[in-house]
Design a protein that fits this description.
Naphthalene 1,2-dioxygenase Alpha Subunit, Chain A, domain 1; four-stranded antiparallel β-sheet; eight-stranded mixed β-sheet; globular; Rieske Iron-sulfur Protein; 24% strand; single chain; alpha+beta; 19 strands; 2 domains
Length: 428
């Protein structure tokens, strides 16, 4: 149980807050690159800051303060140039660093140096595997981590995102809670199926053992459930929880990077980036862009969407409130991973407060060629079922309760989706 003061320290993410300063030492997703395919500006809120994401005609991305420093017009209506974004009010133009590079009237009057004194707030943006990642911290920016699942070739990628009305921490703490799988995604799933008057049921396997190990980039969570042999190989199955706000799950069939990016204190941008290796002997089609979709939280009648695994998680997180009241909780033996994470968070908040560099910040270029992550037992994790069935259960939002139709690569023409399904082995 935390005090209210301690809870605030973990959850408040605005500029100058302890957790906000920690979060600003890492790269965070702000949009899918495909969202900028047919437009040049987009409003973004991240870590309590309102910003404008833009793409100039040269293909360079920038993330800047919303207001021009001249007469404070909003740059959402900015004109993209070959380099930079131009304020349409009086023509001042800013590049991706925030530097003003043109002031047409002032320069025509002979004042060519005034622009050198004008610099808008700006943050670097990099594209990675279909996501636009931004860094809001102090210089020098660390390297954008090259996780090994991003270095994989012959894959198909897909992005799903949701805007959740709750604090980021209750989303991330779910990653250190293996036992919820037994109840939220098994017992509760069966209750939902019962209410829908559907005959199928999920096998609710009880947890026999859970464990957590700290590694260089975070914490590995492990579980053993009924039916496992109990040998060392079963116990080696694990998922890395990457510090401070990412979970990687998966197997040789599919991988999912889950980002719990704080929009502000009471909202979270939840991004699921799916990576599907092609089936043996198949070639994955080349993707012009990584498709994306927004995951709905509620149905038209206002009821929760609960027939997807992630939506069950969303419901659990959101119903804890805007910010979970951790001063009123009672933690048990199954919460060891959550306690471990909170201690690690506090430790790293204090490191940053003392002027140090926190855990999992990457600066070694050689090591960053491809950072291997400990999804131990990758070849064993999903077993005992045809590849197509396993992929349908592991991919693109559908969970134990599969909906009519398949949302994999939603938004692309059916002939393209069919080609992807064949390459992935989904038509088994």
């Amino acid at each position: 149980m935390l005090t209210q003061t301690q809870n605030d320290r973990y959850t408040r993410v605005g500029p100058g807050t302890p957790c906000g300063e920690l979060m600003r030492r890492y790269w965070h997703p702000v949009a899918a690159a495909a969202q900028m395919k047919d437009k040049f500006t987009m409003q973004v809120r991240i870590l309590g800051e309102d910003l404008i994401l833009y793409k100039d005609r040269g293909g360079v991305y920038g993330l800047i303060d919303p207001f021009c420093l001249h007469r404070r017009m909003n740059m959402i209506y900015g004109i993209p140039e070959d380099r930079g974004l131009r304020c349409p009010y009086h023509g001042w133009c800013y590049d991706e660093t925030g530097q003003c590079i043109e002031q047409p009237y002032e320069e025509a009057e002979g004042d060519s140096r005034f622009k050198d004194k004008i610099k808008i707030k700006a943050y670097p943006v990099r594209e990675q595997a279909g996501l636009l990642m931004a860094y809001l911290g102090p210089d020098p920016a660390p390297l954008l981590p090259a996780w090994d699942v991003y270095a994989m070739s012959n894959v198909v990628r897909d992005i799903g995102y949701a805007m959740l009305p709750c604090n980021w921490l209750q989303c991330q703490e779910n990653s250190l809670d293996p036992v919820h799988l037994e109840w939220l995604h098994s017992a509760f799933t069966n209750y939902v199926l019962e209410r829908l008057e559907r005959p199928e049921r999920v096998n609710q396997k009880k947890h026999a053992k859970i464990g957590f190990d700290v590694f260089e980039y975070g914490i590995v969570k492990r579980r053993m459930v009924e039916g496992d042999t109990g040998d060392e190989e079963d116990w080696k199955v694990g998922h890395p929880v990457l510090f401070p706000n990412i979970l990687l799950t998966g197997s040789q069939y599919s991988y999912t990077m889950q980002f719990r990016t704080p929009i502000d204190d009471t909202h979270t941008y939840h991004v699921s980036q799916y990576i599907f290796p092609a089936a043996p002997g198949q070639q994955a089609p080349i993707q012009e862009f990584v498709p994306y979709r927004m995951v709905p939280l509620q149905q038209e009648d206002g009821n929760w969407v609960l027939n997807y695994t992630f939506n069950q998680d969303y419901m659990a997180w959101i119903t804890q409130g805007d910010i979970a009241k951790r001063d009123q909780e009672k933690l048990g033996e199954s919460d060891r991973g959550i306690i471990m994470m909170r201690r690690k968070m506090l430790e790293q908040i204090e490191v940053v407060g003392a002027g140090g560099e926190p855990k999992a910040v990457v600066r070694d270029a050689e090591a960053n060629r491809s950072i291997s992550l400990p999804i131990i037992g990758r070849d064993r994790y999903l077993k005992g079922a045809p590849r197509g069935q396993l992929l349908r259960e592991a991919s693109s939002t559908p969970g134990p309760i599969l909906p009519e139709g398949f949302v994999f690569l939603a938004g692309q023409p059916e002939e393209i989706r069919a080609a992807y399904r064949r390459a992935m082995g989904l038509d088994e």
